[in-house]
Amino acid sequence: MGPLLLPLPTEKRDTIMPIVYTGATFDVFHVGHLDLLRRCKELGDVVVSLNTDVFIEQFKGKKPIYSYEERKEILESCKLVDLVIPNTGGADSKPAILSVHPRYIVVGSDWLRKDYCKQMGFTPEWLEEQNITLVYVPRIRKVSSTEIKERIKK
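and the corresponding structure tokens:
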């Protein structure tokens, strides 16, 4: 079972919804995030693994604009999100993933040219052992938090 690239058929879903995992910083929530979460929701119940403030500062070299609690509250208010959990493993996402036992991990197609598995601390073989399918969804709108921050500066 290898990675998938949506669009998938939009047939009726099972009554027991699979768990769909996606993780990110979600520092400046925007329409690109909504697009990703909508695609996640098409596949099942959405669990967002939210990066902690400490991890963001270590990984990006700067503090997020919004605190973890603020970002969590924003995501929890979104009808597309069923649960928000902390990414407690930092660069190793396996602990967060295993805590919810997802059927799918969903990520934007911008990761197709990057080594997403390495970035997240797992291998394709590990995904297969866990019976998890990695799904890449197309970026519909080319917007990013960095771009929005630049707009604000101008």
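(Above: one complete record from the training split.) Residues 14 and 46 are 15 Å apart (CA to CA).
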